[in-house]
Write a structure and sequence with these properties.
alpha+beta, Multidrug-efflux Transporter 1 Regulator Bmrr, Chain A, 17% helix, 40% strand, globular, Cass2, AraC_E-bd
């Protein structure tokens, strides 16, 4: 197992994504993290149907959330948006600046609080609209309790 899964180092990265996946919409916050876990488990069963997937062990999870409901996605990155399996959705997130932190599935709350503090301390503001989503990236490993997670928050 990796020695340092959660480095808690913050940085700005520029990324775009082409994604294929599934989503779930549920009451927020009471249905989370259970709803997120459910969509990940359901998606894992069908990920092999995605033919042009870059890496089936990296789940990319954009989400939209307010104080009432959240829509949470389980996706993989693809080479291009084609041959999208039935029951799945394909979409592109345009090139954007993100504040990024590396943590783990066990330290995700600490990751969020550290990243939002860093965003404020460095004069950035979270970007709320214009085709932007906060994103969680999961680096899946078999038979481990703790996996690497990166959190990306769109910034301006």
């Amino acid at each position: 197992m990796e020695k340092t899964i959660a480095t808690f180092e913050c940085e700005v990265v520029k990324r775009k994504f082409e994604l294929v996946g599934q989503s779930i919409t549920a009451n927020y916050p009471q249905s989370f993290p259970d709803a997120a876990i459910k969509v990940h488990m359901d998606f894992k069963k069908g990920v092999d149907e995605i033919r042009n997937c870059k890496n089936k062990q990296i789940f990319i999870s954009p989400y939209m959330c307010n104080d009432i409901i959240a829509t949470y996605f389980a996706c993989v990155e693809v080479d291009e948006l084609r041959d999208i399996p039935e029951g799945m959705i394909g979409f592109e997130l345009p090139l954007m600046d993100y504040a990024k932190i590396s943590c783990s599935n066990k330290t995700i709350d600490q990751g969020y609080s550290t990243l939002f503090a860093w965003i404020g301390e460095n004069g950035y503001k979270q970007k709320w609209y214009d085709r932007s989503f906060p994103i969680e990236i999961y680096y899946l490993k078999e038979n481990v309790e703790e996996e690497k997670v990166e959190i990306l928050i769109p910034i301006q």
